[in-house]
């Protein structure tokens, strides 16, 4: 992970979740990229049709179809529960350069991908947030849920890869931030300033910290009112002595990329 707006990996400050409650919660299994991790876990994802999964593009940047699996119905990575499907094709949204502006490392938008499975999954799917719902869905302060198997304690970040995930699915609730607060945090509240287009990202987190997505949750869902509102994309450190518990997370804004995603769900 880089030092600036690092890929997000885990739910910090969460509680145990379940794929029985949230059957659309799946994960990417990559035996080549994650040979030592339980279930070869590499990233999260959301089942949006029986044969389509939405995840982060940076999770599949160097992946070749046929070498990646998607696993559903497995709350505990140490088990063999659930269903496994081969990924037969990958669509990555092209990177969208943010408009020119002062300060900060530019962070492209469009960190979303659609995976096509070789056959249907038998689980309930998660609908996409639409542009028509955006004004209400992304209102600042709106409660959102995040889920993932990444690190759940800051000290895990220093452990060997096999111990850098949380075996049991975690979930947490946190409020959406305003675009102004999100961008201000990224440009002025972080030791590694980053600049992006708020139309491409939505941020979530508490002012005091304590609950956030972090390293291993990449590609996992941000759920608002039963809709896939975001895809876990980047972690934004805060403060002079940043820690995972103080970070906020940037999620690719699904409503912005809805039409391109929908084209690849047919």
Secondary-structure map:
Blueprint lengths: L5 E2 L1 E4 L2 E2 L8 E5 L11 E9 L2 E4 L13 E4 L10 E10 L12 E2 L6 E5 L16 H4 L5 E6 L21 E6 L3 H10 L5 E2 L5 E4 L7 E4 L5 E4 L2 E10 L11 E6 H10 L3
Parallel strand pairs: 9-13
Antiparallel strand pairs: 1-17, 2-15, 3-12, 4-5, 4-7, 5-6, 6-10, 7-8, 8-10, 11-12, 11-16, 14-18, 16-17, 17-18
Would you kindly provide a brief summary of this structure?
With 266 residues, the chain is mainly β. 9% of the residues lie in helices and 33% in strands. A hairpin with a 2-residue loop joins strand 16 (221-224) and strand 17.
How much is the average pLDDT?
Answer: 86
Oligomer: single chain
Structural class: mainly beta
Q: Domains counted in the coordinates: how many?
A: 1
Helix amount: under 10%
Question: Outline, from the CA principal axes?
Answer: globular
Return the CATH architecture: Beta Barrel
CATH H-level name... which superfamily?
A: Trypsin-like serine proteases
The CATH class is: Mainly Beta
Low-confidence runs of at least 5 consecutive residues: 1-10
Radius of gyration: 17 Å
- Helix count, per DSSP? 3
Q: Characterize the largest beta sheet: strand count, sense, and whether it forms a barrel.
A: 8 strands, antiparallel
Instruction: From the 3D structure, determine the CATH topology.
Output: Thrombin, subunit H
């Amino acid at each position: 992970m880089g030092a600036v707006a690092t890929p997000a990996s885990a739910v910090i400050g969460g509680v145990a979740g379940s794929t029985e409650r949230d059957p659309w919660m799946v994960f990417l299994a990559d035996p080549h990229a994650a040979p030592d991790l339980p279930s070869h876990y590499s990233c999260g994802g959301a089942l949006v049709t029986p044969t389509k999964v939405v995840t982060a593009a940076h999770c599949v940047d160097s992946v070749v179809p046929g070498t990646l699996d998607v696993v559903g119905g497995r709350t505990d990575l140490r088990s063999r529960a659930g269903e496994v499907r081969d990924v037969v094709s990958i669509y990555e949204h092209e990177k969208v350069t943010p408009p020119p502006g002062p300060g900060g490392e530019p962070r492209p938008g469009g960190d979303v991908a659609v995976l096509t499975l070789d056959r249907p999954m038998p689980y309930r799917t998660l609908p996409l947030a639409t542009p028509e719902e955006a004004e209400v869905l992304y209102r600042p302060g709106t409660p959102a849920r995040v889920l993932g198997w990444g690190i759940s304690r800051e000290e895990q970040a220093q452990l060997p890869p096999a111990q850098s995930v949380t075996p049991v699915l975690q979930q947490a609730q946190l409020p959406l931030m305003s675009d102004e607060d999100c961008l201000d945090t990224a440009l002025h509240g972080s030791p590694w300033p980053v600049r992006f287009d708020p139309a491409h990202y939505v941020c979530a987190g508490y002012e005091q910290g304590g609950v956030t997505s972090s390293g291993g949750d990449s590609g996992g869902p941000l759920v608002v009112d039963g809709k896939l509102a975001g895809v876990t994309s980047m972690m934004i450190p805060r403060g002079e002595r940043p820690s995972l518990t103080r970070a906020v997370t940037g999620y690719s804004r699904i409503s912005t990329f809805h039409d391109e995603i929908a084209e690849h769900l047919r």
